[in-house]
Amino acid sequence: EAAVTQSPRSKVAVTGGKVTLSCHQTNNHDYMYWYRQDTGHGLRLIHYSYVADSTEKGDIPDGYKASRPSQENFSLILELASLSQTAVYFCASSTRGPNERLFFGHGTKLSVL
Amino acid sequence: DAKTTQPDSMESTEGETVHLPCSHATISGNEYIYWYRQVPLQGPEYVTHGLQQNTTNSMAFLAIASDRKSSTLILPHVSLRDAAVYHCILRENTGYQNFYFGKGTSLTVIP
Which residues does chain B have within 8 Å of residue A43's beta carbon, measured at their own beta carbons? Predict the structure, then answer.
């Protein structure tokens, strides 16, 4: 079964601090994604990547950077964390094609104080 | 930019068959209809998807209208584990296109 592992599971950060969220997949998938989810809302795409050493902006990239050092690993970086970035962050991976589907991690709950 | 319309919530009793509707009146010819579900504190889970024909798997049956402007996810004999938010999503599977997750339908299952 496809596996996407996120770390940490939860984190408390201070405003203005740097936060790094990590994601590791063992699916051999080319595509990886970072979404955020605010309470009572759907998921919104922050960044994605379709190959190692390359990242693309999603729908809400401001305030976030991403890094894809290898096919298996994809990180989300908040250089200067802000209160508005308190949310649950989900990483996902996928293949491409007519049977494409996303496989999600369990999420990282980030609280910025 | 959600192109689907779903009821905010639905309720069912354990053992019943649940029909979750989704309206997508402006669907284009190469857009697939995907269903994901999400339980609290977990990431969304793939349920099923289809293009034109009805599809079935171990989790659900997807009924797609002949004009493709609506679809229904059918969950037979629901259990408490089926309580989740169900998302209906349209997506082309060529090039790059995002999966847009709206609020979905929150399904409550009563024992």
Answer: 44, 101
